[in-house]
Design brief:
It comes from Ploceus nigricollis. This is PP4R1 phosphatase. Keywords: Repeat. One of its GO terms (cellular component) is cytoplasm. The protein is an all-alpha fold. The chain has two domains: 121 residues, Leucine-rich Repeat Variant (Alpha Horseshoe), CATH 1.25.10; 117 residues. Helix content is 68%, strand content 0%. The protein contains 16 helices and no strands. Helix 7 crosses helix 8, helix 11 packs parallel to helix 13 and helix 12 packs antiparallel against helix 13. It is elongated, with a radius of gyration of 23 Å.
Length: 282
């Protein structure tokens, strides 16, 4: 309880905006806070200095990135202005390991900062990570649901158009990337409307069901069954009817045996998980 009250004190809801056209004196003042000794914070912020990385430790920027959510939590969102420049510097670091570290923790930072600061300062960084190397993108993908659920509904819908891009990887043999995408899409079903699921997530799910790797396909069967369940419970029944008709057309009547086998496995998953009433299933 005492910890909760301390966090509440640290994280009051005052979101301070920062002006990018600061004089050197104002710049120095913008880094001042009263939560931890200022000398300690200054020492931490200096870790992104390139000369320090060359003379002290080549991994220092990675350590700095790893600790940043903890520093942000300690300082509280009202002192985010102290860390913002350092975060943006690390997000643009030449070493992919530094960017990867930030990508894996950006959803945690979003919780600490709240929706207003997340939309203004983290979303642009998040968008940059989406176009990065696979080693960085996987960090964003593994916590895609955790990050998107924190965004405003309109902002969240913008990412529907980009989900298709996760099917393309630097190395096509990187099947775990596609398996993670299928796992995340199951969670994302709760964040989007029936129409969005049908229009945007359905084509990706069908593509994953035809993947060359069986581990990806098995997760995708679960994804399609959950999609059937979600659309059946929606107020518009046409979506689930159209989806089931497409399953029959695309897989049941497929000229390849693997497609017909996929249909059987999807039917098995739908019945095992009670995604449809049996009369509707029949």
């Amino acid at each position: 309880q005492s910890m909760d009250s301390t966090l509440h004190y640290i994280h009051n809801d005052s979101d301070l905006s920062t002006n990018s056209s600061f004089s050197p004196e104002e710049e120095r003042k913008s880094k001042v806070q009263d939560v931890v000794p200022q000398a300690l914070l200054d020492q931490y912020l200096s870790m992104t200095d390139p000369s320090r990385a060359q003379t002290v430790d080549t991994e220092i920027a990675k350590h700095c990135a790893y600790s940043l959510p903890g520093v942000a939590l300690t300082l509280g969102r009202q002192n985010w202005h102290c860390l913002k420049d350092t975060y943006e510097t690390l997000a643009a670091d030449m070493q992919w390991k530094v960017r990867r570290t930030l990508a894996f923790s950006i959803h945690e930072l979003a919780v600490i900062l709240g929706d207003q600061l997340t939309a203004g300062d983290l979303v642009p960084v998040f968008n940059g990570f989406l176009k990065d190397l696979d080693e960085v993108r996987i960090g964003v993908l593994k916590h895609l649901h955790d990050f998107l659920k924190l965004l405003h509904v309109d902002k969240r819908r913008e990412y529907l158009y980009q989900l298709q891009e996760f099917l393309v990887t630097d190395n096509s043999r990187n099947w775990r990337f596609r398996a993670e995408l299928a796992e995340q899409l199951i969670l994302l079903l709760d964040l989007y409307s029936a129409r969005d699921i049908y229009d945007y997530l359905r084509p990706i799910a069908f593509s994953l069901c035809a993947d060359k790797v069986s581990s990806v396909r098995w997760i995708s069967y679960k994804l399609v069954s959950e999609m059937v369940k979600k659309l059946y419970m929606a107020s518009t029944p046409t979506f689930v009817v159209d989806l089931m008709n497409e399953l029959v057309e695309k897989f049941c009547r497929c000229h390849k045996w693997s497609g017909r086998q996929t249909f059987v496995f999807i039917c098995q998953t739908i019945s095992e998980d009670d995604c449809l009433p049996m009369d509707q299933f029949a």
